[in-house]
Amino acid sequence: MKIKMPRRLVAAIASVGLALVAVPTVAPAANAVDACGLGETCTGALSGSLGDTSFQITMPPKFNGTVLLYSHGYRIGQPVPAQIATALGLDKAPYYSETTVPGIGPAYVGNGIAQVAPSAETAANLLGQGYALAGAGYANQGWATAEGVEAGELLIQHINGGAIKGAKEIIAWGDSLGGLISQTLVQRNPGKIAGTLPLCGVLEGPEQAFSTAMTVLYTWKTLIDPTLKVANYSAGQAGYAEAVGDLAKVFGTINAVASGQATVSAAGFPIGQANLLAGLMAGLPTKSQTYDGVSTNPAVGELGLGAALAGGYSPVSAGQNSAGAMLQNVAQAAALGIMGRYELEQRVRTIGGLAPTDNANFNNNVPVVYSKLLTQEQRYEFESTFAAAGPGVLDAMLGAMDATTGNEAARFPANPAAVAIVNALPAAKAVYGKPAVFMTTTYDAIVPAGNTYAFYEDMADTKAAMRADDKGMLKAVQYYTVPLDPEYTSFEPGAKSPSAALSALATGGSGVGHCTFTADQHVGAVKALQAMIKAKTAKAVTAAKRLGYRAPGVNRDRQFVPEALKYPLATAN
Description:
The protein is 40% helix and 12% strand. By secondary structure, the protein is an alpha/beta fold. The termini are far apart.
């Protein structure tokens, strides 16, 4: 392992929002593995077989002996046009850099800056409790599980080589893609990691993750915009142009629907309802950070339904609220489903040495019976929404989806070689080993809560886990976070539509959105994991698990089960 000379910084720790008394700057270390001093932030780069990765270590004023090794989430590895990037908030994210794409203009792309915690508030809290924080930036972005695992292993070697004096244990944690990387990392290095904390982890792997997006986008192609490419993007820049084109079409249509400029698609279906159907079949939640799926505009009660409708007030029904939520959720899912797919297909082409004309698609949707993905409960729950579009619309949409079942020309057959390559990428197995805490947002449009649930249940069904559970010593727990106010859609006085800022405030930063956890929830999960690691008795294990449940916004119903993960190919049987 080659270690590049690290750069020491004063621990004003601007990167995590701490304001400490300034101390003299420490000169660069003569030895690359000199310990990072208390109250300091040390940065540098490590070199591995996949390239160089930046790293950062931030030490607390007083060290408790535990190092939290953080793996960051998915960063889009291809430039996203500025207008769309701004809508996604990438222009304000420190882990995205502005660039210029010929023919497109300003854009934002994920960078390799190291990250040591999910948020500045969480980092500050953990540092105040004595934890050392470490994280890497990865040699490449996108579906970078290989790079993320290698970066974690390099950083572990660096820490154990003397970079953190007095380190007694390392805990691996991360969110989204970083949750998958963390769980993979601990399974590959069980002797070096004491436990793991996957947050909203995409634990079921890439094929399952992108099958969710395939369901959404193929529904869009069938019912809303037949010009979408969806999958098997061309090699190189031609494919990039196709992916950016798809993303622009989806965002443009969603904006047009949200602003009332478009209602019916070229295929003759109501766009809002078709989009809602797409999300439901994919397993996306009917709650977003603005729409709770329940609340209606206060104007409905004041003016009456007819006057509220005529005045342009919304939502006027729970169904309309759900449809509004799904527009926002699909916009988020589309960013990963399109740009992420393009990036991963390019990886497939490179790894497999595919010819430019070869099929790089790894999601086979040819035999999928889409109508089977809509549960009877969903049919009943949203009957009024579909009925508002006219009698028989739901059945007509489902009929159009199923009409192409088995038709390879109309759908997207997968290349077995591409499937094999994607399935061979580093991924976690659902086995019971080191203590683990799984925490997920209940209403997540990018990684549905059912993803973690499916992984956890498979793990809990192993013989090792069942033996431990019989003794009360199962050192694994899953937490689900919920909005602090279940009816959080909020309005300015007299407003015709909800306030995104007020609604997000009412959620308390909990339970809805992709990996939206509070600092209290992060810290509670870390404490629960550390207590489980130390527990020697069944009573101590139970007490450790309670620590996570105490955080505000964590669902205390231990029998709670989220919406089941959707498995499109299972409908063919």
